[in-house]
Amino acid sequence: MNLMMLLEMASSGFGDRIAVGSQGRGLTYEQLFQRAGATAMRFREAGIDRVSMVDVSSEALPIALFGSAWAGVPFVPLNYRLTVPELRHLAAEVAPSVTVCNDDAVAAIGDLDGVRAVVRPDFLAQWAEGAAPDSDWNVDPEEIAILLYTSGTTGAPKAAVLRHRHLVSYIIGSVEFMGAAEDEATLVSVPPYHVAGMAAILSSVYAGRRIVQLPNFDPAGWVDLVRAEGVTHAMVVPTMLARIVDHLEDVGGGLPSLRALSYGGGKMPAPVIARALDVLPETNFVNAYGLTETSSTVAVLGPEEHRDAHRSDDPSVRARLGSAGRPLPAIEVDIRDEEGNPVATGTSGEIWVRGEQVSGEYLGRNSRVTPDGWFPTNDGGSLDGDGYLYVEGRIDDIIVRGGENISPGEIEDVLLSHPSVADAAAVGVPDEQWGEAVAAVVVPAKGQSVDIADLQEFVKSQMRSSRTPDCIELRDELPYNETGKLLRRILREELAESR
Amino acid sequence: MDLKPGSRLKSSVCDTELIVVKAPSGDVDITCGGAPMADPADAERNGEVAAAAADGTALGKRYVNEDESLEVLCTKPGDGSLALGDMALSLKEAKPLPASD
User: Fold this and answer.
1) Please, are residues A375 and A360 in contact by the beta-carbon 8 Å criterion?
2) Among B8, B96, B100, beta carbon nearest to A176
3) Range of the domain at A22
4) Is the ipTM value over 0.95, yes or no?
5) Which candidate, A83, A85, A84, A115, places its Cα nearest to that of A97?
6) Contact list, B6 vs chain A (CB under 8 Å)
7) Do residues A321 and A306 lie in contact, with contact meaning Cβ atoms separated by under 8 Å?
8) Which one of B75, B94, B98 has the shortest CB-CB distance to A260?
9) Residue range A182-189: mean pLDDT, rounded
10) In a 3-state reduction of DSSP, which class is residue A354?
11) Is residue A197 pLDDT above 90, yes or no?
12) How many domains does chain A have?
């Protein structure tokens, strides 16, 4: 198994379709295949252990990804927003490498031992041109395809290991070959170093869906590109969707070409998805839950399920709008307690997953996967009687107040249902009496003022008093990383200090 | 031969190549065009597609046996059709999943 098998199939099945770029001007699958082969030759000549990239999305990304798969070295997309010291640290760890760079990155890491920094225009003109050799990639499924440094919201970054067998299994288990119609195009706005950015390339190539790239997300640019390129599919993280909905409500007009919009990568506030369903009535919504360590998606809530839940008067059906849907056919999901024993349906515990696409492995660390293939995700959640998965967030984020486990998501949902609240986060802070106390940070809605005592009373009226935030702080915004993950660690530290 | 997920197979009588998605344990007697399949490294073109097994394979399609304990994906199409022992493999109906990334 090798990622190149996916591109080779695409190239022989529909080689003259556009793989990446604008209709009529982009690279075809056949051209992408040729460039991957030409690049692989040069990667081999360079005698390196890895191919890395510190740059936004461009056509260089799929060329470098497939070229490294062909050459038999891992591809390592790095976060181009890291500080110079952080970037130097990771680049040194990844060396010896060829690293495709933006101009800032060349200056930041070009002098490091074993790092051959190549700017994108040179990479495209000098590395990706020329004849491809015969198809001679390594087919050992155990070879590492991609190393992804996790976002490090809870500590130092570590590299998740995705082998060719994980990614190929994921794609052939979840995507129909040539399943896309010829007019379909997907807009990729997540960065290359996010698992969804990698999975989007592989899924789209196998489905035959043209990739349109938005290098730096902003809501107006995203909407303009959907309209200009006739984009039919897109994936966004929750913070992006909130900003897109705001923008569409401001400027008006719909997105008639957009057939399917999937979201994932963090908790979607219920009011945002409800507004999105109203603003984009023709669009099919898909909620995807997955992790870097599981090669992206393991559960999906499909379009029909969204509509049924949105229209339903039955609270248990309506609640599914807040679920991650049901596991993919090739994935098993189990909810287990702290000892690793399965819990009853409807009971919260840790989400465990099993399947060919599950890696659960970090470079230089022991695998967390059990001998029988189960991976504890460190996400809390529950399954309902119909198999719908409810994700409650990282287990490390659970607030333990006086021995009671409190999921921050429950409190946030209640806070967000208050009309004067635009965004909310709940975290545990050290407390002498309770061990941890519940603290909340709230962003008032545009033009609204928030009365803290009223808001505490509002939460108390809907939940047990132990779940009422002991303190609420007002702010203009919450700290998110650029892929939409709330930085709870930062909030915890700041709130603990201010108490 | 013993098969496991990821194993590759090549026809000895046509262009068909497969990758194994799922396989039962033990000896698996998979044929294409009426002739045994082999690892691509060892496969040699030898003979013709049998008339009774000439429906062909299609790129990107998946084929299964009756109880779906064996599933293969066609990575290169050819003129022969697939069988496990005496039983022809059938095209697996695709249950489309919504695009999620």
Assistant:
1) yes
2) B96
3) 3-306
4) no
5) A115
6) 1, 141, 165, 168
7) yes
8) B98
9) 97
10) strand
11) yes
12) 3
Chain A residues with CB-CB distance to B91 below 8 A: none
The reported pLDDT for the residue numbered A227 is: 96
Cβ-based contacts of A178 with chain B (< 8 Å): 59-60
Based on the fold, state whether residues A235 and A122 are members of the same structural domain: yes
d(CA A307, CA A212): 27
Shortest distance between the Cα of A207 and any Cα of chain B, in A, equals 9
Q: Are residues A256 and A335 both part of a single domain? A: no
CB contact at 8 A, A326 and A290: no
Backbone angles phi, psi at A54, to 5 degrees: -125, 80
Q: Which secondary structure element, helix H or strand E, spans residue A225, and what is its range?
A: helix A219-229
Q: What are the phi and psi torsion angles at B27 (to 5°)?
A: -75, 125
Chain B residues whose CB is inside 8 A of the A200 CB are 101
Same domain, A94 and A153: yes
Q: Is the peptide bond preceding residue A191 cis, with omega within 30 degrees of 0? A: no
pLDDT of residue A152: 55
Q: Which residues of B touch A283 (CB under 8 A)?
A: none
Task: Place A150 in a pLDDT band, splitting at 50, 70 and 90.
Answer: confident
CA distances from A216 to A94, A133, A213, A237 (A): 25, 34, 9, 14
Reported as a pLDDT band with limits 50, 70 and 90, residue A464 is confident
The answer to whether the CB of A229 falls within 8 A of the CB of A187 is yes
Q: Map tokens 């082999």 to a residue.
A: B38
CATH number assigned to the domain comprising residue A392? 2.30.38.10
Cα distance from A139 to chain B (closest Cα, Å)? 9
A286 Cα to chain B: minimum distance (Å): 7
pLDDT band at A153 (very low <50, low <70, confident <90, very high): low
Interfacial residues of A (vs B; Cβ cutoff 8 Å): 1, 5, 8-9, 12-13, 139, 141, 165, 168-169, 172-179, 186, 196, 199-200, 203, 207, 209, 233, 235, 260, 262, 264, 284, 286, 288, 290, 296-297, 300, 302-303, 328-329, 356
Is A31 a residue whose pLDDT tops 80? yes
Gap between the Cα atoms of A488 and A264, Å rounded: 18
Q: What is the pLDDT of residue A497?
A: 84
Q: Model pTM?
A: 0.90
Backbone angles phi, psi at A415, to 5 degrees: -60, -45
Say which residue the tokens 């490091």 belong to: A112
Average pLDDT value for residue range A176-199? 96
Q: Has residue B41 been placed in a domain?
A: yes
Average pLDDT for chain A: 93
